[in-house]
Every structure is written in structure tokens, then in C-alpha cells.
Design goal:
Length: 102
């Protein structure tokens, strides 16, 4: 399930409700949660914005370039207290234009 699917959860409800429910059912908190993102390699400002969201949180960020060099993928392993913190990170990242959330 992707965040995009959750964004279409309904006009009257919380678009993150499905994700919240899945997190509650499948993960024991607190935990280290793995986030995955893709950004065009040329979008250096957006990459800096993404990294800054996790600065000082104890997160580990791994950056990998695509074979053609056009994109960069990021794996972020961040300590989170609960599902609301996971959703909060997704909401903050969604404000950065050009980031693809997996």
C-alpha cells in the first residue's frame, strides 16, 4: 500500500486512517521505522529539505543513485514512538514538492 492510495481514502475522512490502522495492527511501537523516498538527482534543494526533516532525530539515511544517475533513492530508518509520529513524518515530507514516497 502506498501513501497515494491513502490520499484517496475519502473526502470526508482522514486520508491517513488506513495507514494508521495498518501500523497499529502490524508494528509494535516504539520502533525503528523504515521510510523510502525517491527524488530527481537534480533537485538538490529538495534533497536537502528531505534530509533536514530527519536531522537530529537519530535517523540513519542511506542515499543511492539510480543506474542512469537521474534519480536518487533514500532509505531513512528513524526511531518513532507511535503511528502518529510515522504519519507526521509522511505529512511533512508530502509538503516537499517532487518527492515520491514509497
Amino acid at each position: 500500500m502506498s501513501i497515494g492510495e491513502n490520499a484517496n481514502a475519502g473526502l470526508n475522512g482522514d486520508p491517513y486512517e488506513n495507514l494508521r490502522s495498518l501500523l497499529q495492527q502490524s508494528i509494535v511501537f516504539p520502533t525503528d521505522y523504515t521510510f523510502k523516498f525517491i527524488i530527481k538527482a537534480a533537485e538538490e534543494g529538495k534533497i536537502a529539505d528531505l534530509k533536514s526533516l530527519f536531522t537530529g532525530t537519530g535517523a540513519r539515511i542511506t542515499e543511492t543513485g539510480s543506474s542512469g544517475g537521474k534519480y536518487k533513492s533514500f532509505t531513512v530508518v528513524a526511531p518513532v514512538r507511535d503511528e502518529e509520529e510515522v504519519i507526521s513524518y509522511y505529512k511533512e515530507v508530502s509538503k516537499i514538492d517532487a518527492v515520491i514516497m514509497l
